[in-house]
Amino acid sequence: MNSQQIHLVSRPAGVPSQANFKLVEVALPDLKDGEVLVKNTWMSVDPYMRTRMIDRKSYIPPFELNAVMDGGAIGEVVESRNPRFPVGAKISHISGWRTAFISDGQDFTLLPDVPLPDQYFLGVMGMTGLTAWVGLIKVAHLKPTDTVFVSAASGAVGSVACQIAKLCGCRVIGSVGSDEKAELVKSMGVDAVINYNKVDDLTQALQAAAPEGIDVYFENVGGDHLQAALNVMNDYGRIPVCGMIADYNADTPQPGPTNLLFITMKKLTLQGFIVMDYFDQFEEFASQMAPWIAEGKVKSEETVYEGIDHAVDAFLGLFDGKNRGKMLVKL
Ligand SMILES: NC(=O)c1ccc[n+]([C@@H]2O[C@H](COP(=O)([O-])OP(=O)(O)OC[C@H]3O[C@@H](n4cnc5c(N)ncnc54)[C@H](OP(=O)(O)O)[C@@H]3O)[C@@H](O)[C@H]2O)c1
Can you list the domains of the chain with their CATH numbers? Predict the structure, then answer.
Protein backbone atom coordinates (compact mmCIF):
# COMPACT_ATOMS: atom_id res chain seq x y z
CA MET A 1 0.00 0.00 0.00
CA ASN A 2 1.11 3.58 -0.62
CA SER A 3 0.87 6.37 1.94
CA GLN A 4 0.38 10.03 1.11
CA GLN A 5 2.15 12.26 3.61
CA ILE A 6 2.68 15.94 4.22
CA HIS A 7 6.31 16.96 4.65
CA LEU A 8 7.56 20.30 5.98
CA VAL A 9 10.10 21.37 3.34
CA SER A 10 11.05 24.83 4.64
CA ARG A 11 10.64 26.72 7.89
CA PRO A 12 8.04 29.50 7.53
CA ALA A 13 9.03 33.11 8.12
CA GLY A 14 5.88 34.83 9.34
CA VAL A 15 2.61 33.40 8.10
CA PRO A 16 3.16 29.89 6.63
CA SER A 17 2.13 29.20 3.03
CA GLN A 18 1.59 26.16 0.84
CA ALA A 19 5.22 26.51 -0.35
CA ASN A 20 6.44 25.37 3.10
CA PHE A 21 4.79 21.95 2.61
CA LYS A 22 4.88 19.11 0.10
CA LEU A 23 2.55 16.16 -0.50
CA VAL A 24 4.72 13.06 -0.92
CA GLU A 25 3.70 9.49 -1.80
CA VAL A 26 5.70 6.60 -0.36
CA ALA A 27 5.32 2.83 -0.68
CA LEU A 28 4.88 1.02 2.65
CA PRO A 29 6.83 -2.23 3.21
CA ASP A 30 5.30 -5.61 4.14
CA LEU A 31 4.33 -6.11 7.80
CA LYS A 32 6.73 -7.78 10.23
CA ASP A 33 5.63 -9.75 13.28
CA GLY A 34 4.11 -7.45 15.92
CA GLU A 35 3.21 -4.74 13.39
CA VAL A 36 -0.08 -3.37 12.08
CA LEU A 37 -1.05 -1.37 9.00
CA VAL A 38 -3.29 1.57 9.88
CA LYS A 39 -5.41 3.67 7.54
CA ASN A 40 -6.08 7.08 9.03
CA THR A 41 -9.67 8.30 8.96
CA TRP A 42 -9.36 11.68 10.74
CA MET A 43 -6.49 14.00 11.58
CA SER A 44 -6.26 17.08 13.71
CA VAL A 45 -4.61 20.36 12.80
CA ASP A 46 -3.67 22.55 15.75
CA PRO A 47 -2.14 25.98 16.31
CA TYR A 48 0.75 24.51 18.38
CA MET A 49 2.02 22.85 15.19
CA ARG A 50 3.11 26.29 14.01
CA THR A 51 5.40 26.56 17.03
CA ARG A 52 7.00 23.22 16.04
CA MET A 53 7.99 24.67 12.66
CA ILE A 54 10.62 26.78 14.42
CA ASP A 55 13.95 25.05 15.07
CA ARG A 56 14.29 25.66 18.82
CA LYS A 57 14.27 23.77 22.08
CA SER A 58 10.77 23.41 23.50
CA TYR A 59 8.50 21.05 25.42
CA ILE A 60 8.12 19.10 22.16
CA PRO A 61 10.74 18.64 19.41
CA PRO A 62 10.54 20.77 16.25
CA PHE A 63 9.34 19.16 13.02
CA GLU A 64 12.25 17.93 10.92
CA LEU A 65 12.61 19.28 7.41
CA ASN A 66 11.78 16.94 4.50
CA ALA A 67 10.14 14.43 6.80
CA VAL A 68 6.49 13.64 7.50
CA MET A 69 4.97 15.81 10.25
CA ASP A 70 3.00 14.28 13.11
CA GLY A 71 0.00 15.11 15.24
CA GLY A 72 -3.20 13.67 16.66
CA ALA A 73 -5.17 11.33 14.41
CA ILE A 74 -7.69 8.48 14.39
CA GLY A 75 -7.17 5.37 12.30
CA GLU A 76 -8.39 1.85 11.68
CA VAL A 77 -6.24 -1.28 11.56
CA VAL A 78 -6.53 -2.80 8.07
CA GLU A 79 -3.84 -5.50 8.34
CA SER A 80 -2.44 -6.97 11.54
CA ARG A 81 0.37 -9.15 12.80
CA ASN A 82 -0.21 -7.93 16.38
CA PRO A 83 -2.89 -9.67 18.47
CA ARG A 84 -3.47 -6.53 20.59
CA PHE A 85 -4.76 -4.65 17.53
CA PRO A 86 -6.88 -6.89 15.26
CA VAL A 87 -8.19 -5.79 11.86
CA GLY A 88 -11.02 -3.31 12.40
CA ALA A 89 -9.63 -1.91 15.68
CA LYS A 90 -10.03 1.87 15.88
CA ILE A 91 -7.21 3.74 17.53
CA SER A 92 -6.10 7.23 18.40
CA HIS A 93 -2.41 8.00 18.01
CA ILE A 94 -0.02 10.76 16.99
CA SER A 95 0.88 9.66 13.43
CA GLY A 96 -1.26 12.24 11.66
CA TRP A 97 -0.44 14.12 8.44
CA ARG A 98 -0.45 10.82 6.46
CA THR A 99 -3.07 8.51 5.02
CA ALA A 100 -1.54 5.21 6.20
CA PHE A 101 1.39 3.88 8.21
CA ILE A 102 2.93 0.81 9.82
CA SER A 103 3.50 0.65 13.58
CA ASP A 104 4.11 -1.72 16.45
CA GLY A 105 1.25 0.07 18.28
CA GLN A 106 3.37 1.25 21.25
CA ASP A 107 1.68 4.66 21.44
CA PHE A 108 -1.82 3.54 20.41
CA THR A 109 -4.97 4.09 22.47
CA LEU A 110 -7.96 1.96 21.49
CA LEU A 111 -11.12 4.04 21.04
CA PRO A 112 -13.64 3.09 23.73
CA ASP A 113 -16.78 1.31 22.59
CA VAL A 114 -19.16 4.22 23.14
CA PRO A 115 -21.78 5.73 20.84
CA LEU A 116 -19.80 8.84 19.93
CA PRO A 117 -18.44 9.88 16.52
CA ASP A 118 -14.79 8.83 16.19
CA GLN A 119 -13.56 12.38 15.62
CA TYR A 120 -14.82 13.46 19.07
CA PHE A 121 -11.69 11.74 20.42
CA LEU A 122 -9.60 14.41 18.69
CA GLY A 123 -11.89 17.18 19.91
CA VAL A 124 -14.32 17.49 22.75
CA MET A 125 -13.52 14.00 24.19
CA GLY A 126 -9.82 14.23 23.35
CA MET A 127 -6.95 16.68 23.71
CA THR A 128 -9.16 19.72 22.98
CA GLY A 129 -11.71 18.98 25.69
CA LEU A 130 -9.03 17.95 28.16
CA THR A 131 -7.19 21.24 27.56
CA ALA A 132 -10.29 23.33 28.28
CA TRP A 133 -11.10 21.27 31.39
CA VAL A 134 -7.53 21.32 32.75
CA GLY A 135 -7.22 25.09 32.26
CA LEU A 136 -10.44 25.86 34.09
CA ILE A 137 -10.66 23.12 36.71
CA LYS A 138 -7.06 22.19 37.52
CA VAL A 139 -5.21 25.44 36.78
CA ALA A 140 -7.77 28.19 37.50
CA HIS A 141 -9.65 26.23 40.21
CA LEU A 142 -12.95 27.54 38.84
CA LYS A 143 -15.68 28.59 41.28
CA PRO A 144 -19.39 29.09 40.43
CA THR A 145 -19.14 32.73 41.50
CA ASP A 146 -16.41 33.49 38.93
CA THR A 147 -16.84 35.73 35.92
CA VAL A 148 -14.83 34.07 33.17
CA PHE A 149 -13.45 35.62 29.98
CA VAL A 150 -12.50 33.22 27.15
CA SER A 151 -10.62 34.43 24.06
CA ALA A 152 -10.88 32.57 20.72
CA ALA A 153 -14.23 31.55 22.22
CA SER A 154 -15.65 29.92 19.09
CA GLY A 155 -12.53 27.81 18.49
CA ALA A 156 -11.85 24.22 19.50
CA VAL A 157 -10.62 24.77 23.05
CA GLY A 158 -12.47 28.07 23.56
CA SER A 159 -15.92 26.70 22.69
CA VAL A 160 -15.49 23.82 25.15
CA ALA A 161 -14.11 26.17 27.84
CA CYS A 162 -17.16 28.41 27.48
CA GLN A 163 -19.54 25.47 27.87
CA ILE A 164 -17.69 24.01 30.88
CA ALA A 165 -17.62 27.41 32.61
CA LYS A 166 -21.38 27.80 32.05
CA LEU A 167 -21.99 24.28 33.42
CA CYS A 168 -20.00 25.25 36.52
CA GLY A 169 -22.41 28.15 37.08
CA CYS A 170 -20.11 31.00 36.01
CA ARG A 171 -20.91 34.17 34.11
CA VAL A 172 -19.04 33.84 30.80
CA ILE A 173 -17.80 36.39 28.28
CA GLY A 174 -16.24 35.32 24.99
CA SER A 175 -14.29 37.11 22.28
CA VAL A 176 -14.45 36.15 18.61
CA GLY A 177 -13.44 37.56 15.23
CA SER A 178 -16.82 37.75 13.44
CA ASP A 179 -20.54 38.31 14.03
CA GLU A 180 -21.30 34.82 12.75
CA LYS A 181 -18.98 33.35 15.40
CA ALA A 182 -20.59 35.60 18.01
CA GLU A 183 -23.97 34.02 17.21
CA LEU A 184 -22.47 30.55 17.58
CA VAL A 185 -20.98 31.36 20.98
CA LYS A 186 -24.25 32.94 22.16
CA SER A 187 -26.07 29.77 21.12
CA MET A 188 -23.83 27.92 23.59
CA GLY A 189 -25.27 30.00 26.43
CA VAL A 190 -22.42 32.49 26.80
CA ASP A 191 -23.65 35.66 28.52
CA ALA A 192 -21.82 38.30 26.44
CA VAL A 193 -19.71 38.14 23.29
CA ILE A 194 -17.24 40.68 21.92
CA ASN A 195 -16.36 40.74 18.23
CA TYR A 196 -12.83 42.12 18.62
CA ASN A 197 -12.75 43.16 14.96
CA LYS A 198 -15.66 45.53 15.57
CA VAL A 199 -14.55 47.33 18.73
CA ASP A 200 -12.13 50.27 18.89
CA ASP A 201 -11.08 49.60 22.47
CA LEU A 202 -11.05 46.02 23.77
CA THR A 203 -10.67 47.12 27.42
CA GLN A 204 -13.79 49.30 27.19
CA ALA A 205 -15.74 46.49 25.52
CA LEU A 206 -14.64 44.05 28.21
CA GLN A 207 -15.51 46.49 30.99
CA ALA A 208 -18.97 46.93 29.49
CA ALA A 209 -19.44 43.16 29.23
CA ALA A 210 -18.09 42.54 32.76
CA PRO A 211 -18.98 45.59 34.89
CA GLU A 212 -18.04 43.64 38.04
CA GLY A 213 -14.65 42.64 36.60
CA ILE A 214 -13.18 39.30 35.56
CA ASP A 215 -12.01 36.56 37.93
CA VAL A 216 -10.66 34.07 35.39
CA TYR A 217 -9.21 34.84 31.96
CA PHE A 218 -8.77 31.71 29.79
CA GLU A 219 -5.93 32.95 27.60
CA ASN A 220 -5.81 31.63 24.03
CA VAL A 221 -4.73 34.71 22.10
CA GLY A 222 -2.20 37.01 23.87
CA GLY A 223 -1.38 40.55 22.66
CA ASP A 224 -4.20 43.06 23.01
CA HIS A 225 -6.44 40.43 24.62
CA LEU A 226 -4.05 39.92 27.53
CA GLN A 227 -3.61 43.68 27.90
CA ALA A 228 -7.39 44.19 28.10
CA ALA A 229 -7.90 41.25 30.47
CA LEU A 230 -5.20 42.53 32.87
CA ASN A 231 -6.98 45.90 32.91
CA VAL A 232 -10.30 44.33 33.87
CA MET A 233 -9.16 41.50 36.18
CA ASN A 234 -10.38 41.50 39.78
CA ASP A 235 -8.05 41.07 42.76
CA TYR A 236 -6.77 37.50 43.11
CA GLY A 237 -7.84 36.74 39.51
CA ARG A 238 -6.42 33.66 37.79
CA ILE A 239 -5.17 33.45 34.22
CA PRO A 240 -4.60 29.93 32.86
CA VAL A 241 -2.31 30.64 29.91
CA CYS A 242 -3.32 28.03 27.35
CA GLY A 243 -1.78 29.67 24.28
CA MET A 244 -1.12 32.95 22.49
CA ILE A 245 -2.05 32.38 18.86
CA ALA A 246 -1.66 36.07 17.96
CA ASP A 247 2.11 35.62 18.39
CA TYR A 248 2.65 32.33 16.55
CA ASN A 249 3.32 33.85 13.12
CA ALA A 250 5.27 36.87 14.37
CA ASP A 251 8.81 36.84 12.98
CA THR A 252 9.92 39.73 15.19
CA PRO A 253 9.40 40.01 18.97
CA GLN A 254 5.95 41.40 19.74
CA PRO A 255 5.44 44.23 22.22
CA GLY A 256 4.37 42.83 25.58
CA PRO A 257 1.41 44.18 27.56
CA THR A 258 2.30 47.54 29.10
CA ASN A 259 0.29 46.82 32.24
CA LEU A 260 2.07 43.80 33.77
CA LEU A 261 2.29 45.72 37.05
CA PHE A 262 -1.36 44.75 37.56
CA ILE A 263 -0.13 41.21 38.25
CA THR A 264 1.34 42.59 41.47
CA MET A 265 -1.24 45.25 42.25
CA LYS A 266 -4.18 42.87 41.77
CA LYS A 267 -2.34 39.85 43.22
CA LEU A 268 -3.02 37.81 40.05
CA THR A 269 -1.90 34.28 39.26
CA LEU A 270 -0.81 33.57 35.67
CA GLN A 271 0.01 29.95 35.01
CA GLY A 272 1.03 28.39 31.72
CA PHE A 273 0.15 24.75 31.21
CA ILE A 274 0.66 22.03 28.61
CA VAL A 275 -2.10 19.47 28.29
CA MET A 276 0.25 16.50 27.89
CA ASP A 277 1.36 16.99 31.52
CA TYR A 278 -2.22 16.12 32.53
CA PHE A 279 -2.77 12.96 30.46
CA ASP A 280 -2.84 10.95 33.71
CA GLN A 281 -6.03 12.86 34.63
CA PHE A 282 -7.85 11.84 31.45
CA GLU A 283 -10.11 9.37 33.28
CA GLU A 284 -11.34 12.05 35.69
CA PHE A 285 -11.94 14.41 32.76
CA ALA A 286 -13.76 11.74 30.73
CA SER A 287 -15.99 10.81 33.67
CA GLN A 288 -17.29 14.40 33.71
CA MET A 289 -17.28 15.13 29.99
CA ALA A 290 -18.93 11.91 28.72
CA PRO A 291 -22.20 12.48 30.65
CA TRP A 292 -22.22 16.17 29.67
CA ILE A 293 -22.05 15.14 26.00
CA ALA A 294 -24.58 12.32 26.41
CA GLU A 295 -27.04 14.71 28.07
CA GLY A 296 -26.52 17.34 25.36
CA LYS A 297 -25.00 19.78 27.85
CA VAL A 298 -21.74 20.06 25.88
CA LYS A 299 -22.01 20.25 22.11
CA SER A 300 -19.19 19.60 19.68
CA GLU A 301 -18.72 22.16 16.93
CA GLU A 302 -16.52 21.06 14.01
CA THR A 303 -15.13 22.41 10.76
CA VAL A 304 -14.14 19.59 8.40
CA TYR A 305 -11.84 19.72 5.37
CA GLU A 306 -11.78 16.61 3.17
CA GLY A 307 -8.66 14.79 1.99
CA ILE A 308 -4.95 14.87 2.76
CA ASP A 309 -4.49 17.34 -0.11
CA HIS A 310 -6.55 19.86 1.91
CA ALA A 311 -4.76 19.28 5.23
CA VAL A 312 -2.44 22.26 4.75
CA ASP A 313 -5.44 24.49 3.86
CA ALA A 314 -7.09 23.40 7.10
CA PHE A 315 -3.96 24.18 9.10
CA LEU A 316 -3.48 27.60 7.46
CA GLY A 317 -7.19 28.33 8.05
CA LEU A 318 -6.61 28.32 11.82
CA PHE A 319 -4.72 31.60 11.48
CA ASP A 320 -7.41 33.17 9.26
CA GLY A 321 -10.25 32.27 11.62
CA LYS A 322 -11.72 29.81 9.08
CA ASN A 323 -12.82 27.33 11.76
CA ARG A 324 -15.81 27.19 14.05
CA GLY A 325 -14.99 24.72 16.78
CA LYS A 326 -12.50 21.95 16.15
CA MET A 327 -10.64 22.05 12.82
CA LEU A 328 -10.44 18.50 11.41
CA VAL A 329 -9.38 16.76 8.23
CA LYS A 330 -11.38 13.72 7.11
CA LEU A 331 -9.12 11.31 5.27
N1 LIG B 1 -1.52 24.56 26.41
C2 LIG B 1 -1.95 23.50 25.74
O3 LIG B 1 -1.68 22.35 26.07
C4 LIG B 1 -2.81 23.73 24.52
C5 LIG B 1 -3.53 22.68 23.91
C6 LIG B 1 -4.34 22.98 22.82
C7 LIG B 1 -4.42 24.29 22.36
N8 LIG B 1 -3.69 25.26 22.95
C9 LIG B 1 -3.77 26.66 22.54
O10 LIG B 1 -5.12 27.06 22.68
C11 LIG B 1 -5.41 28.09 21.73
C12 LIG B 1 -6.64 27.66 20.93
O13 LIG B 1 -6.30 26.49 20.21
P14 LIG B 1 -7.40 25.70 19.39
O15 LIG B 1 -6.83 24.40 19.00
O16 LIG B 1 -8.67 25.75 20.13
O17 LIG B 1 -7.52 26.61 18.08
P18 LIG B 1 -8.81 27.38 17.59
O19 LIG B 1 -9.15 28.39 18.63
O20 LIG B 1 -9.84 26.41 17.20
O21 LIG B 1 -8.37 28.07 16.22
C22 LIG B 1 -7.76 29.24 16.12
C23 LIG B 1 -8.71 30.44 16.28
O24 LIG B 1 -7.97 31.46 16.90
C25 LIG B 1 -8.41 32.72 16.46
N26 LIG B 1 -7.25 33.50 15.99
C27 LIG B 1 -6.36 33.14 15.04
N28 LIG B 1 -5.42 34.10 14.90
C29 LIG B 1 -5.77 35.08 15.78
C30 LIG B 1 -5.19 36.36 16.11
N31 LIG B 1 -4.09 36.81 15.50
N32 LIG B 1 -5.82 37.11 17.06
C33 LIG B 1 -6.94 36.66 17.68
N34 LIG B 1 -7.51 35.47 17.41
C35 LIG B 1 -6.92 34.69 16.47
C36 LIG B 1 -9.38 32.49 15.30
O37 LIG B 1 -10.70 32.73 15.77
P38 LIG B 1 -11.39 34.20 15.56
O39 LIG B 1 -11.91 34.19 14.15
O40 LIG B 1 -12.43 34.25 16.59
O41 LIG B 1 -10.29 35.21 15.72
C42 LIG B 1 -9.19 31.01 14.97
O43 LIG B 1 -10.36 30.42 14.48
C44 LIG B 1 -4.15 28.27 20.91
O45 LIG B 1 -3.40 29.33 21.44
C46 LIG B 1 -3.42 26.96 21.11
O47 LIG B 1 -2.04 27.06 20.89
C48 LIG B 1 -2.89 24.99 24.02
Answer: 2-123+300-330 (3.90.180.10), 127-276 (3.40.50.720)
